[in-house]
Design brief:
alpha+beta; conserved putative lor/sdh protein from methanococcus maripaludis s2 fold; 6-stranded antiparallel beta barrel; about 35% helix
Length: about 425
């Protein structure tokens, strides 16, 4: 009996198209459940309300101040460094003690330096002796010239008297004329010799004045060098340059210290300051002379910002606040609470709690929850100053608005959030 043949290939292709269509429909339905783009509303996203932090916009006083914590450090510290270097021979005080100006702290020994000073003393003594000998020779030459002048003057006097006597005897014919002429020539010679000696004396006096000044300067310089070498020996005994607390002393008996090594420091008593670290966000807002309210011992002390270190390290910078000198029982290294007054306070301002949303929006927009708490829409806002707890709202929000203040990293591209 004959059987009817059906077109199974065609049915197989139809089945495949139906399965593919169902799959695409399922994918589209799944995607549409999470995101939808109705006309004029933008992309939306489903979010669980319990995973969000919601803050209500309130109205109240905005205190433009930062609650901070600073560390007490000395206002003035004097460092103790070695000038000559050497081996620690004796430790005369202990760390933390109060020391007076000029009080010995540490004694060093340096054999090489001591030998060098002895060698310099010998060299300086030898050179000073040479200078004294030179001065003595100059003085001897001066005296010899004066003696020569005296002898020449005496010779001229004798020749002039002999010439006068010889002239009379020649006129009487008793003495030969040649003898008279010889006496005349000798007199002329000694007068010329006197002029030459006077000129030499004048020249040597001028040279002597310059040499004496140079020798005096050389002697002074040599004495200074000798005194400097001796001072190096004195520097082996480290003394306190000022009176204060020896807050650090890093020396041990027998330890070798190189020239310029740091031995410790002395803190001037009753003079302290606070070092405070701030977030780099406030770098443009903090100025010298700003007021700070320091809380210490149950009292509020008014202080001012005296220094700003604008170098940013790990997203922070430092400021210094001088403390009054009449604060008692304050210790170095102590931490103290304070409030830094950035500006004037506002008694009637719109306030929004600070949150992680700011890192995503920069304060230009937020998600505001609608009535019924089923949706939240994106809204442009303008935020002003901020303190430890709040942002000051300048525009875009009203009292009672509920704002999502937690982070927006997972949904910051959505225009609307569906809350469930």
């Amino acid at each position: 009996m004959d059987k009817k043949i059906t077109h199974q290939g065609k049915a197989k292709h139809i089945k495949r198209f139906v399965i593919a269509g169902l799959s695409l429909g399922l994918i589209a339905a799944t995607y549409g459940y999470g995101f939808s783009q109705p006309t004029g509303t933008g992309r939306s996203q489903n979010i669980e309300l319990t995973s969000l932090t919601v803050s209500t916009v309130t109205q109240g006083a905005f205190k433009d101040a930062l609650s901070l914590r600073g560390q007490v450090v000395p206002k003035t510290s004097i460092y103790l460094d070695t000038i000559a270097g050497g081996q620690v021979e004796e430790r005369l005080v202990e760390q933390g003690e109060y020391v007076e100006q000029g009080q010995p702290l540490v004694r060093l020994s340096n054999t090489s330096l001591q030998l060098d000073v002895m060698s310099r003393e010998a060299q300086v003594t030898e050179q000073l002796n040479f200078l004294r000998n030179t001065q003595m020779n100059m003085e001897t030459n001066r005296l010899n010239l004066r003696r020569d002048l005296l002898e020449i003057d005496l010779k001229i006097t004798h020749l002039e008297r002999r010439l006068k006597q010889s002239q009379t005897l020649v006129n009487q014919g008793v003495l030969a004329k040649d003898t008279l002429e010889q006496t005349q020539q000798d007199l002329t010679y000694y007068k010329a010799r006197k002029e030459l000696t006077l000129e030499r004396q004048q020249q040597e006096n001028s040279i002597r004045k310059v040499q004496v000044a140079q020798l005096a300067d050389s002697a002074k310089m040599l004495n200074n060098n000798l005194q400097f070498a001796r001072n190096n020996l004195d520097n082996l005994l480290i003394k306190a340059p000022v009176a204060g607390y020896l807050s650090e002393l890093d020396v041990e008996i027998g330890e070798s210290k190189n020239r310029g090594s740091r031995l410790g420091q002395i803190d001037i008593p009753n003079e302290y300051k606070l070092v405070v670290k701030l977030d780099e966000f406030y770098l443009n807002q903090v100025q010298r002379g700003m007021s700070a309210m320091v809380s210490f011992g149950g009292e509020i002390i008014t202080a001012t910002v005296t220094k700003i270190d604008s170098r940013v390290k790990q997203s922070q910078f430092k400021i210094e606040i001088n403390l009054p000198t009449n604060i008692e029982a304050i210790k170095r290294g102590q931490s103290i609470n304070l409030e830094l007054m950035l500006g004037s306070n506002t008694n009637n301002a719109l306030l929004l709690n600070r949150g992680a949303f700011f890192s995503s929006t920069g304060g230009h927009w937020v998600y505001v929850i609608a009535e019924g708490e089923t949706t939240a829409t994106r809204r442009d806002v303008r935020l002003g100053r901020k303190n430890q707890h709040y942002f000051e709202v300048l525009a875009g929000l009203s009292t009672g608005d509920k704002v999502i203040t937690s982070g927006y990293a997972n949904f910051d591209k959505a225009q609307q959030l569906n809350l469930h």
